[in-house]
Amino acid sequence: MIPGMSDTAEQGEGRTGPESDDERRARQRERRIGAHRSARRVLARSGHQRTLRERLDLLERAADVYDLDELSDLYGGGVVEALEEKVAGLLGKEAAVFFPTGTMAQQVALRCWAGRTGNPTVALHALAHPEVHERNAFSQVSGLRPVRVTSEPRMPTAAEVRDLDEPFGALMLELPLRDAGHLLPSWEELTEVVEAAREREAVVHFDGARLWEATVHLGRPLDEIADLADSVYVSFYKSLGGYGGAVLAGPRALTEEARAWRHRYGGTVYQQFPTVLSALVGLERELPRLPDYVRHARVVAAALREGFAAAGVPWARVHPEVPHTNEFQVWLPYDAETATEAAVRQTEETGTELFGRPWGTPGPGLAVTEISVRAESLEWTPDDVKAAVTDFVARVTGADGL
């Protein structure tokens, strides 16, 4: 994930001491979200930047996707079961089970596979979500032993899987690999990696938190992609705009065991209908639109490259150059603090938000952020993007004195 922002601290009125890092980050985030909410034009609006009232509006569409006169769910069943069946069908899997979080879903899936293979070792990328963002949950909570196939900022190769110098029971592939730039392999590369795992007598699990938008790059429908794996996890809030929640799909025997472990992990929640209804709405409303977002992300990325070149930026990188999904990275030769300040000021002063996410510092004199292309982005033409880039660069170079 992109490192957090680090704006220059400002002294608040009446302060008796320097501002702490936590206070500075909280202030920066509040300012950035305030600018985002007041902006007239943005590339994407995400759920965590909306008010509770605005988020509740999502359920106004619930009657279009489910019979609201049915009884509510109770520790599963009802609307929860309907979501499970729908996702199992979309992914072409025998069965599916709902989880409150993807972290829980994947721990359960892989410990279930470990029991079947007799090997608790999970091969995965060094940038995979469990390795970077879950506080060593595999080893600390689930008795699993992660081993890294590669640390390179790209997808693992079939040769690396085939030549890994110790046995493993499961290969976990994050599709797309978010922290490397939302990267996907080609369809041929993916099938070769899966075949290499099979040669090692390992099962294959897809971390498909954002698998929904992988169909354009891979050139295959969801069920054909999911068919390569023994089990698949998908998320409902990252791409589909739901309140949260996840589903683990695979063989019925696996999902039934996963229900038992879900209970043990505290994930069999009394009622989940708001989250589940929001997921059903997302599947109905957003899933069909994701291919359009991916295709337009390529338009936005090309305009960004052209805009930075025209503005005289000595070096700029859109990564990947042709986005694999509707999200990608932008790297610039500026200090992250300066880039952050320019981005927020542009939003505050023009009402146009080009860069709404934090800027991180991957190295001295470098700044990197993520771009997400969603429904709001479809209104942006290439000329709109280039004009916003010109304005942004003017603010950055003015602040840097370049």
Overview of the structural elements:
The chain has 402 residues and is an alpha/beta fold. It folds into 2 domains: 73-270, Aspartate Aminotransferase, domain 2 (3-Layer(aba) Sandwich), CATH 3.40.640; 289-400, Aspartate Aminotransferase, domain 1 (Alpha-Beta Complex), CATH 3.90.1150.10. The protein is built from 15 helices and 10 strands. The protein has helices at residues 21-38, 52-56, 79-91, 102-117, 129-133, 137-141, 158-163, 187-199, 215-218, 222-226, 252-264, 273-285, 290-310, 336-350, 382-400, and strands at 95-99, 121-124, 145-148, 170-174, 203-208, 231-235, 246-250, 317-319, 327-332, 367-372. The chain has a 7-stranded mixed β-sheet with strand order 1-7-6-5-4-2-3, sandwiched between helices. A hairpin with a 7-residue loop joins strand 8 (317-319) and strand 9 (327-332). Helix 1 (21-38) packs parallel to helix 14 (336-350), helix 13 packs across helix 15 and helix 14 (336-350) crosses helix 15 (382-400). The protein is globular. The chain starts with 20 loop residues before the first helix and ends with a helix. Residues 3-13 have low confidence and may be disordered.
Summarize this, please?
This protein has 402 residues and is α/β, with parallel strands linked by helices.
Strands, count: 10
Task: Provide the CATH top-level class of the largest domain.
Answer: Alpha Beta
Main structural class:
alpha/beta
Q: What are the segments in which pLDDT stays under 50 over at least 5 consecutive residues?
A: 3-13
- The fraction of residues in strands falls at 5-15%
What helical percentage do the residues reach?
40-55%
- By CATH, the architecture of the largest domain is named 3-Layer(aba) Sandwich
Question: How many domain units?
Answer: 2
